[in-house]
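Can anyone check this?
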Amino acid sequence: MKNSAKSTLLFIVALLLAVPALAQQRPSDRGPGNGRPGAGPEMDRLRDVPSEVRSEAQIAVFDEYLKLTDVQKKQLAQANDDAATKADKLRDQKVNRQKKMDMARELRNEHQQAIHKILSKEQYSVFLEKKEAIQYDIRQRLKDYTRNGD
C-alpha cells in the first residue's frame, strides 16, 4: 500500500513538472515576427531593399529560368514599377490592418496576373513548375544585396 501511494504521488509530481514543458508557446512568446514563418530581422532587412533592386533581381532570375526576351524584360520592369508605386500608396493609407492586408493581397494578385500576361504559355508553365526555386533564388539575391550593401 505504501509503495502504491508513493508511486502515485511520484507520478503526479512528475506530471505536474512535465506539463509546463509540454505546453505550446503562444505566437506572442516566440520572439521577433511572433512565430510567423520567415519573419524576424532578416525579413525586416529584405523589406528595406529598394524596389528597383527587387525588380532587377526578379528579372535576372526569371531570365535564367524562363529565357525572357528584351520586350518581356521591359514589360516585367514596368509591371514591377507599377506594383511598387501602388504598394507605396497602400503603405501610406490610413485604413485598418485587415483592410490593408486585403488590399495588399489584391495588389499581389494583380501583379501575378500581369506576370501571367507577359509570359508565354510555355514560360508560365515552367514558372509554375519551378516557382519555389525561382522565389528562393530571388530571395537569395536580395539577402546578398542586404549583406553586401551593393
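Reply from J.R.: I decoded it. The radius of gyration is 24 Å.
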